[in-house]
Amino acid sequence: MSQRSTPTTRPALLPALRRCLPLLALAVPTLWSATAQAADLTLVTDFGVNGRHAYFFVAQEKGYYRDAGLNVTIVRGQGSADAIKKVAAGSAQVGFADAASLVLARANDEVPVKLLSIVYQQPPQAIFALESSGIRSARDLVGRKVADTASSAVPLLFGAYAQKAGIAKEQVSWMVADGASLPAVLATGRADAIGQFTVGEALLQKAVAPQKLVRLAYKDVGLSYYGNGLIASESMIKQQPEVLKSFVAATLRGMQEAFRDPAGAGQILNAAQKQVDAAVAEAETKAVAELAQNPEGPMGGISVTGMRNTVDTVAGAFTLKRKVTPEEMFVPGFTPR
Predict the structure, then answer these.
(1) I need a labelling partner for 116 at 20 to 30 A (CA). Which of 191, 253, 276, 293 fits?
(2) Residue 6 — very low, low, confident or very high, per pLDDT cuts 50/70/90?
(3) Given its phi and psi angles, is residue 60 left (phi above 0), alpha (psi -120 to 50 degrees) or beta?
(4) Centroid of chain to Cα 168
């Protein structure tokens, strides 16, 4: 991913972060006061552990989860669909997953999982190619082969991207590859491009260096829908709402701290997960901070309008077994204001 020289905290984010600080700091102990004993939670990520997940580890290292009366164990997921299944089955109490994947899971399989909070307020999906490929726009993908994992949200939503970009989705072929091998698949030319979230650009750029990347982001063609958020099962929401509110508040507090100090967040993640480069984690945290900006409400907030856009985008790209409503996709009141 090409990187820009960026100050530690973007000026545009400072006012929002300052407004959130006292609210989030107060929310966690207030919720903990209602909990007599620490609650054990397993959190499953959308895919692996990467720099984009640094704020979870910040919340853990800084004691935000502990202060909220939570003992959180972070485990690696194998894609959003996998995370949703694990949460539905109860092998993880909370998860981090793509909203569009959850729409598909509820509409087609009646999976009893809902969103508690949205982290990526903007679409994170993108297709990356090497400059040497000659790919510069969506039209250049016609007749090309793109690789991604089987459960990735990038190919799932490609139909919506293709329609907006003015090409037929059938004009592009997709191949399945293991997530860890995707950078090599791109670098060696086994595929002309790969699917990847924009927050993973720094890691990908490091893997293909000295070659340069071209990014075709779904949001750049005018798509507007929610990306990843925090999820829980309906039974967990019903039985332990205060525990989940504590988890959301502590996680948002971790996000706030990570956005304030991306370099520190990168170091915290690297200390916990040696395989993740601290500089890459810093860059990915900055990318998450951009996607997390919510001009219409609090950090992590979910609106009916935003959820409707997400449902409509998925419905336009797939034939769903039933029509889901925006209101059934999330639970209001879990984001501190």
Answers:
(1) 276
(2) very low
(3) alpha
(4) 27
Per-residue model confidence (pLDDT) at position 4: 37
Alpha-carbon distances of 195 from 101, 164, 176, 216, rounded to whole Å: 15, 17, 10, 10
Is residue 237 pLDDT above 70, yes or no? yes
Amino acid at 207: A
Question: Chain-centre distance of CA 210, in angstroms?
Answer: 27
Residue 17 pLDDT: 46
The neighbouring-strand residues paired with 231 are 95, 115
Q: What is the DSSP string of 91-135?
A: SSSEEEEEHHHHHHHHHHH---EEEEEES--S--EEEEEEGGGT-
Nearest to 217 by CA among 231, 229, 201: 201
DSSP 9: S
pLDDT of 329 strictly over 80:
yes
* Cα dihedral across residues 17, 19, 22, 27: positive or negative: negative
Q: How far apart are CA 97 and CA 82, in angstroms?
A: 9
Q: What is the secondary structure of 231-283 as a DSSP string?
A: EEEHHHHHH-HHHHHHHHHHHHHHHHHHHH-HHHHHHHHHHH-TTS-HHHHHH
Domains and CATH numbers, the chain: 11-122+225-329 (3.40.190.10), 125-221 (3.40.190.10)
Compute the average pLDDT of residues 222-239. 96
150 strand-pairing partners: none
Q: Of 83-92, 106-115, 148-157, 325-334, where does mean pLDDT reach its minimum?
A: 148-157
